[in-house]
From TrEMBL:
Residue spans crossing the bilayer: 30-49, 394-414
UniProt entry tagged with the keyword Membrane: yes
Domain Tyrosine-protein kinase G-rich: 377-416
Keywords from the named record: Cell membrane, Membrane, Transmembrane, Transmembrane helix
InterPro entries given in the database record: Bact_polysacc_biosynth/exp, GNVR, LPS_length_determ_N
Protein name, as recorded: LPS O-antigen chain length determinant protein, WzzB/FepE family
PANTHER family tied to this protein: FERRIC ENTEROBACTIN TRANSPORT PROTEIN FEPE, TYROSINE-PROTEIN KINASE
Domain Polysaccharide chain length determinant N-terminal: 18-76
Primary location recorded for the protein, binned into one broad class: membrane
Keyword Cell membrane: yes
Localization per record: Cell membrane
Length: 445
C-alpha cells in the first residue's frame, strides 16, 4: 500500500512579508492605540503640570554725545559713548555686581532660596542660567550695531521683569559710582601734584629771596667798608696836607721875617723898598710864575698857621667826605631788604605758577552731578511676557503622540514576531511528525 501524503515545509522568510507586517499591526491595533493614548496622556500630564518658564529681554545702546559732554569737557576723565556701553556691559557680567544685587534685593529671589542653603549657593542657582548677555560681533565696524541685549529666563512665581530692570539699573548705578570714585581719585591726585609743584615753587622762591637778601646785605657791607676805607684815607690825606701846609707856612714865615715882609707884597714892591725910591709911577706886573708864599707877609702867614693849628677837623675841606657821609647814612637801612622781609602774601610773587593756580581753582570748582550722568540708553525695558516659553504644550502633546505611536508599533511588531516564531516552531514540529509516519509507508510500498 502506498501513500501519496506530501508535507510542504514552512518557509518563515517567505511568509514574513509586508502582508504579514500589516496583518500583525492590524491585529494589534488596540494595543497600538492604547500605547498612543497612554504616552499622550503622560505627555499631557507633563505639559500641564510642569512649572512654566518665562523670558524677558532688555536692550541697551550707547548714550548720546551730549549726555557725556560735561564729563569729557572736564579734561580729567574721558569716556566716549561706546566705551561707556562697554563699561556697563562689563558691570552686567561682573560676578560681584550680580552678587551685590542679589544680596540687596533678596525679596525678589525668594523662589531660589532653599532650606540649608547659603546665600551664595542660592545665588549660584540663579546665576547659572538665568541672565544671558548678548553683544554684537566685534568684527563689525558699524556704529549702529553697538548694543547689549539681556535675556532672563525664570520660572513662574518669580518677578523677572523687576529683577531684570532692577539689575540693569543697579549695574548702571554701580558703574556710575565707580566712575565718580575714579574721577575723585584723579582730581585728588592732580590737586596733590599741583600742590607739590606750588610747594616746590615756594621753596625755590624762598631760596631765591634769601639769596637775594644775602647778596644785597653783602653788597651793602662791602660798599660800607669801601666808603669807610675811603673816608679814612681821605682824612689821613687831609691831615698830611695840613701838616705839609704848616711846615710850608713855617718856612715862609721865617723867610718873610728875614726879608722884613710884614704885609703881602710883590717882587716889584720888594725891589722898590730896596732902592728906597719913591715914584708916582704905577707898575703893572705880568708874570706867569707862581709867587712864593712868603710874599704873603708874616702877618698873613702867621694868621693862616694859627688857624690851621686850631682846626679840629679837615672834613669840610673836601666835598667827597660829605658825599661819603651821605652814602654811609643811606647804607644804614636797605629798603629793598625791608620790603622783601615785610611781604605779606608771598604767593603773589611766585613765578610761572599762574597756570597751576588756574588748574587748581578749576579742579576745586569741578562739580559734576554724577547722579544725572547717563552712561547708556535703555532702548527697551523688560516687559511682562504674554505667555511662557516653556513648556510648549502643543509640541509636547504632538511629540507624545508620535512617540506613543512609534512605541506602539514597535511593541506590536515585537509581539507579532514572537507569535510568528512560535507558530513556525509548531509547524516545524508537526512537519517532523508527518515525515516519520510517511517513511514506513514508502518502505512498504
Amino acid at each position: 500500500m502506498s501513500s501519496s501524503l506530501r508535507v510542504t515545509p514552512v518557509h518563515l522568510a517567505g511568509k514574513f512579508g509586508l502582508e504579514m507586517l500589516f496583518q500583525g499591526l492590524w491585529q494589534n491595533k488596540v494595543l497600538i492605540f492604547a500605547v498612543v493614548v497612554l504616552v499622550g496622556a503622560l505627555s499631557a500630564v507633563y505639559a500641564f503640570l510642569v512649572t512654566p518658564e518665562y523670558q524677558v529681554t532688555s536692550m541697551l545702546r550707547p548714550a548720546a554725545i551730549n549726555e557725556l559732554d560735561a564729563l569729557n569737557r572736564s579734561e580729567v576723565y574721558t569716556l566716549p559713548p561706546a566705551q561707556a556701553l562697554i563699561k556697563v556691559g562689563e558691570a552686567l557680567e561682573s560676578y560681584d555686581i550680580r552678587l551685590g544685587f542679589f544680596r540687596s534685593h533678596q525679596n525678589l529671589f525668594k523662589a531660589f532660596s532653599r532650606p540649608g542653603r547659603t546665600l551664595e549657593q542660592s545665588f549660584e542657582e540663579f546665576n547659572k542660567n538665568s541672565i544671558n548677555l548678548e553683544v554684537p560681533d566685534p568684527k563689525k565696524a558699524d556704529a549702529l550695531s553697538n548694543y547689549i541685549k539681556l535675556e532672563m529666563t525664570y520660572p513662574k512665581g518669580v518677578d523677572g521683569v523687576s529683577i531684570l530692570n532692577g539689575f540693569i539699573e543697579y549695574a548702571i548705578n554701580a558703574e556710575r559710582q565707580q566712575i565718580a570714585a575714579d574721577l575723585s581719585v584723579i582730581v585728588k591726585n592732580r590737586l596733590t601734584e599741583i600742590e607739590g609743584k606750588l610747594s616746590a615753587a615756594r621753596s625755590s622762591y624762598e631760596m631765591d629771596k634769601e639769596a637775594k637778601i644775602a647778596k644785597l646785605a653783602e653788597k651793602d657791607v662791602l660798599h660800607r667798608a669801601q666808603l669807610q676805607d675811603e673816608l679814612k684815607a681821605l682824612r689821613a690825606q687831609l691831615t698830611a696836607v695840613r701838616s705839609d701846609r704848616l711846615a710850608l707856612l713855617g718856612e715862609s714865615i721865617a723867610i718873610a721875617k728875614s726879608l722884613g715882609i710884614q704885609k703881602p707884597s710883590t717882587l716889584s714892591s720888594l725891589g722898590d723898598k730896596t732902592n728906597n725910591r719913591s715914584s708916582n709911577v704905577i707898575r703893572t706886573e705880568i708874570n706867569n710864575q707862581q709867587v712864593p708864599l712868603y710874599f704873603m707877609g708874616v702877618e698873613a702867614l702867621e694868621a693862616e698857621r694859627s688857624a690851621l693849628l686850631q682846626r679840629k677837623s679837615d672834613d669840610f675841606t673836601d666835598v667827597r667826605i660829605a658825599q661819603i657821609a651821605k652814602d654811609l647814612q643811606l647804607l644804614q637801612s636797605n629798603r629793598e631788604i625791608e620790603l622783601l622781609n615785610n611781604r605779606k602774601n608771598e604767593d603773589l610773587f611766585l613765578s610761572n605758577v599762574a597756570p597751576l593756580r588756574g588748574e587748581q581753582a578749576r579742579l576745586r570748582s569741578l562739580n559734576l552731578d554724577m547722579a544725572q550722568l547717563k552712561l547708556v540708553v535703555i532702548d527697551k525695558l523688560a516687559l511682562e511676557p504674554i505667555k511662557p516659553i516653556k513648556p510648549k504644550k502643543v509640541l509636547i502633546l504632538l511629540s507624545g503622540l508620535i512617540l506613543g505611536g512609534v512605541l506602539g508599533v514597535l511593541i506590536a511588531l515585537a509581539r507579532s514576531l514572537l507569535l510568528i516564531r512560535r507558530n513556525a516552531a509548531v509547524d516545524r514540529a508537526a512537519h517532523s511528525q508527518h515525515a516519520v509516519i510517511a517513511e514506513p509507508a514508502k518502505i512498504e510500498r
